[in-house]
C-alpha cells in the first residue's frame, strides 16, 4: 500500500489532493508528494527491502504507488562499480560508478516513468504521453507496451533517426512536431491541458519525479547502508538532483543508514536534512545549457531561462522546473556546480569508455568531465567516497563519437596484417 | 472560443519597467490573473492565468514574445531528454 497523504505546494505550502495534478490550484507552484512517515517507519526495514524485487519496487514503501502490481520492466538495481582505472587516472582511490545506462530502455528515465505509468494506471488513464528528445520517449513507449495502454510521444521533427527508432519500436503514436524548441514546449503544454492523458512529466510529475529517489536508496544500500562523501550528478530540470538528496535524507530520518539514529521529518518534510547526511552534492551541466550552474555561480536564487545549444541533448532543458530547489540543495550540502565546456563532453565519454568499459551518452560525458574537474581542483580528496551517476547509454548518441572509428584497413593476408599491427601495438611478440 | 492559459513570463532588465501585463489586458481584451511574481532590478518573472478568446490569447502571447519576454508553461520546460 502507499503511504501517501496528499500533495503539497512547494511554494505556498497548501494541501492538494493526491490526484493527477502538477501545479497548486492557488499559486500554480509545483506539487510534491507528502508521506505518512510515521506509518512507513512502523513497517520499513533492511530485511523488508531485501525481500523485494531487484528493481526500484523494492522501495515501494517510499514510492507513491498503491497495490502490488506496478508497471515494472525491471528498472533499477543497476550496478555500482568500483572504478579503479578511472579513479587511478583522476587520483581518486574510492570512486564508484552508478551505471544506470543499463536500465531496460537504457537510461535512468525508466525509474521515473515506471512510477508515473503505475500512477497513470491507478488513476484509470488509458494513454500516457510525453514530449521528448530521446530517452523519455523510449521509456514511456516501453512502459505503455508493458502496461497494455496507449502511448503518445511528441518528438522534434529533426530528432536523430536512432532515437526515433529506439522509441518507435515499442509501437507508440509518434507525433513529429516541426517548430522551435519553445513552440514544441508550448504545444505540448496545451495538449496536456486539453486531452485526458497522463503526461508523465506534467500531470503525473509529482509522482514521476519521486522515482529518482531510488538512485539515492540504491547507492546507499549497495554501499552497505552508507551515503557517499561526494556525488556527481548530471542535471537538466534539476529534479533528479533534488530527489537523490531527498532519498539519502529519508533513509537517515527513518533510521535506515548504518549507525545513524532516525529523526523526525519536521514541519516541511520536503526540505528535511538529517545531520548525518554530509554528502556534498555536485551538479554537472554543459556550457550550452547551464541555467542552474549560472544562477549558482552568480549567487542568484532565481534561474534565468536559456535557449539550449548543447550536444548533451538529454540535459537540454532551458527553463528547469526544479532549478531553484536544486540551488538550495547545493547550498545546504556545501556542494558545487560546474558547466562543462562543450568540447570536453566527448572527452568525458571517451575517458569513461577507455578506463572502465562503459559507453555512456553525452550526459555521461558531462558528468565524467565534471568529476575530472572536481578531482583536478582538489575539491574531492583522494580517499573520499565518491559516486558518479551515469544515467544514459552511449548507443543513443553514437554520432557524438563517430571520430573513434578508425580501423586498420588491410588486404586478407598475414603480411598485410603484420605490417600494420606492429605500428599500432608496441611490444607485440608474435608466436611468443 | 473562450479559454484559459497558465503561463510564466520572464523579463530581462530593459523590460522590467514596461506595463506589459496591463497592455495585454487592454489591447487583447484578456483577463490577467497574477498568482506569483518576483520583480527585481535586473530581472523579473510573473506566473499568471490568461482568460479570454483563444485567438486573442494566442495573439497576446505572440505579441509578448515578440517584444522580448520569455513565455513558458508554468511547470517549466516539458520537453525532456
UniProtKB/TrEMBL annotation, chain B:
Protein name as it appears in the record: NIL domain-containing protein
Which Pfam families does the record match to this protein? NIL
Which SMART domains has this protein been placed in? Answer: NIL
Q: Which residues form the NIL domain?
A: 3-74
Amino acid at each position: 500500500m502507499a503511504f501517501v497523504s496528499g500533495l503539497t505546494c512547494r511554494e505556498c505550502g497548501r494541501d492538494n489532493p493526491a490526484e493527477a495534478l502538477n501545479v497548486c490550484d492557488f499559486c500554480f507552484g509545483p506539487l510534491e508528494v507528502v508521506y505518512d512517515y510515521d506509518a512507513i517507519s512502523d513497517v520499513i526495514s533492511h530485511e523488508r527491502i531485501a525481500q523485494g524485487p531487484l528493481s526500484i519496487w523494492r522501495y515501494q514503501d517510499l514510492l507513491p504507488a498503491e497495490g502490488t502490481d506496478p508497471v515494472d520492466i525491471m528498472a533499477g538495481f543497476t550496478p555500482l562499480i568500483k572504478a579503479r582505472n578511472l579513479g587511478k587516472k583522476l587520483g581518486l582511490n574510492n570512486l564508484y560508478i552508478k551505471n544506470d545506462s543499463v536500465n531496460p530502455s537504457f537510461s535512468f528515465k525508466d525509474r521515473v516513468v515506471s512510477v508515473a505509468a503505475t500512477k497513470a494506471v491507478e488513476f484509470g488513464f488509458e494513454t500516457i504521453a510525453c514530449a521528448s528528445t530521446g530517452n523519455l520517449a523510449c521509456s514511456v513507449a516501453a512502459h505503455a507496451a508493458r502496461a497494455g495502454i496507449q502511448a503518445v510521444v511528441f518528438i522534434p521533427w529533426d530528432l536523430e533517426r536512432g532515437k526515433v527508432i529506439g522509441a518507435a519500436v515499442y509501437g507508440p503514436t509518434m507525433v513529429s512536431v516541426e517548430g522551435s524548441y519553445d513552440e514544441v514546449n508550448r504545444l505540448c503544454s496545451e495538449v496536456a491541458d486539453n486531452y485526458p492523458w497522463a503526461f508523465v512529466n506534467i500531470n503525473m510529475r509529482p509522482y514521476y519525479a519521486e522515482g529518482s529517489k531510488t538512485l539515492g536508496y540504491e547507492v546507499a544500500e549497495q554501499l552497505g547502508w552508507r551515503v557517499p562523501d561526494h556525488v556527481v550528478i548530471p542535471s537538466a530540470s534539476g529534479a533528479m538532483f533534488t530527489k537523490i538528496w531527498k532519498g539519502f535524507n529519508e533513509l537517515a530520518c527513518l533510521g535506515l543508514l548504518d549507525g545513524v539514529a532516525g529523526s523526525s521529518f519536521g514541519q516541511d518534510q520536503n526540505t528535511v536534512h538529517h545531520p548525518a547526511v554530509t554528502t556534498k552534492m555536485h551538479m554537472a551541466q554543459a556550457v550550452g545549457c547551464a541555467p542552474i550552474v549560472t544562477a549558482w555561480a552568480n549567487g542568484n536564487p532565481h534561474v534565468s531561462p536559456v535557449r539550449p545549444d548543447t550536444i548533451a541533448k538529454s540535459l537540454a532543458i532551458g527553463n528547469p522546473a526544479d532549478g531553484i530547489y536544486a540551488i538550495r540543495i547545493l547550498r545546504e550540502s556545501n556542494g558545487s556546480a560546474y558547466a562543462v565546456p562543450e568540447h570536453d563532453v566527448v572527452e568525458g565519454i571517451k575517458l569513461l569508455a577507455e578506463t572502465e568499459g562503459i559507453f555512456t551518452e553525452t550526459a555521461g560525458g558531462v558528468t565524467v568531465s565534471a568529476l575530472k574537474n572536481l578531482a583536478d581542483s582538489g575539491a574531492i580528496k583522494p580517499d573520499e567516497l565518491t559516486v558518479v551517476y551515469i544515467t544514459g547509454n552511449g548507443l543513443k548518441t553514437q554520432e557524438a563519437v563517430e571520430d573513434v572509428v578508425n580501423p586498420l584497413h588491410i588486404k586478407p593476408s598475414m603480411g598485410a596484417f603484420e605490417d600494420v599491427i606492429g605500428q599500432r601495438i608496441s611490444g607485440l611478440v608474435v608466436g611468443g | 472560443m473562450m479559454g484559459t492559459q497558465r503561463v510564466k513570463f520572464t523579463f530581462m532588465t530593459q523590460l522590467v519597467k514596461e506595463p506589459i501585463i496591463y497592455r495585454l489586458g487592454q489591447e487583447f481584451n484578456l483577463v490577467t490573473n497574477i498568482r506569483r511574481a518576483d520583480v527585481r532590478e535586473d530581472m523579473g518573472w510573473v506566473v499568471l492565468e490568461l482568460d479570454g478568446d483563444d485567438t486573442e490569447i494566442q495573439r497576446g502571447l505572440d505579441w509578448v514574445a515578440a517584444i522580448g519576454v520569455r513565455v513558458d508553461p508554468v511547470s517549466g520546460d516539458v520537453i525532456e531528454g
